[in-house]
Amino acid sequence: VVVTGAGGLLGGRLAALLAQRAAVTAVVRAAPAPAGLATVSLDLRDADAVRRALDAHRPAGVLHCAALADPDRCEREPALAEALNARVPEHLARACRGAGIRLVAVSTDLVFGGEDAPAAEDAAARPLSAYGRTKLAGEEAILAEAPDGVVLRVALVAGRGHGPRATASEAVAWALRAGRRVRLYEDEWRTPVDAESVAEAAWAALAGTARGRFHLGGPERVSRLELGHRVARRLSLPAQAIVAAGRLTHAGAPRAADVSLDSARARRELGFRPRPLDAAIAEGRPGPEASGGRIE
Contact 160/32 with Cβ under 8 angstroms? Predict the structure, then answer.
């Protein structure tokens, strides 16, 4: 299996987990993949280089995790977001179809605008941000170019990540351990999920014949503020530094009120059984020094 974005927060963790089941080739741009994996450095914007890499490695499947996944940066740099989140999936899907390679791609709950929660796969996607719009365009390009492909819409990631960035739960824990204030939105609702649960569904999709879109949300719908307090309780950290705020005070990309996901299709067809939120929280890395980087 080739895993793109294997230097990233989720892609790196998924690459490490899938390597327990299959031979994984990790595709990176700059950030390193997990130790011990065969690694290829590749600019995915180069369609010819992508085709050559697939011809050289001849994988049974590709798990596409690479993206510009910072919503605020996408808002500032929409052309780059379009290139990485929409155009890369398009030519990757075309290359996979031409080579007969199974393609499973990671997308986001932020393709929704927050009005139909909990959203099933057939709910209207009305993204509020450049990130959501470009990821939705990438989904549509993948399914047009590779109709047998799979898109996994992944909710807010909690638990253990990879690299210098923190997952949603790690970010709270790292800040509280450092004595920093944590400002969390009380009116933004998500269904946090951990990489281990996503990896199980991704493996089922890679090994199976399912097609189309699947939602991968965790078992609980919580606000960002509630998630912060859950982290503090589960890890016995002081919660006094957690401050409630409203999402409309955010100065960057627009934030939807509720993008919680209905994951019934994934449960039926992929055997998706997301692990408890508290279990995921407990498995987060203890601090940025354990990730080789810093808090972002």
Answer: no
Q: How far is the C-alpha of 282 from the C-alpha of 206, rounded, in Å?
A: 28
Q: Which residue has the higher pLDDT, 285 or 289?
A: 285
Quick: pLDDT tens for 163-188. 999 999 999 999 999 999 999 999 99
Rounded Cα gap, residues 296 and 40, in angstroms? 26
| Distance separating alpha carbons of residues 1 and 229, to the nearest angstrom | 38
Q: Is 131 noted as a catalytic residue in this protein?
A: yes
Catalytic residue among 112, 131, 185, 203: 131
CB atoms within 10 A of CB 282: 14
| Residue 66 near residue 28, CB atoms below 8 Å | no
Note whether 260 and 191 are within 8 A (CB): yes
Q: How far is CA 271 from the centre of its chain?
A: 19
Enumerate residues 6+ apart whose C-beta is below 8 A from 221.
117, 118, 189, 190, 191, 260
Closest to 223 (Cα-Cα) out of 245, 240, 201, 239 = 245
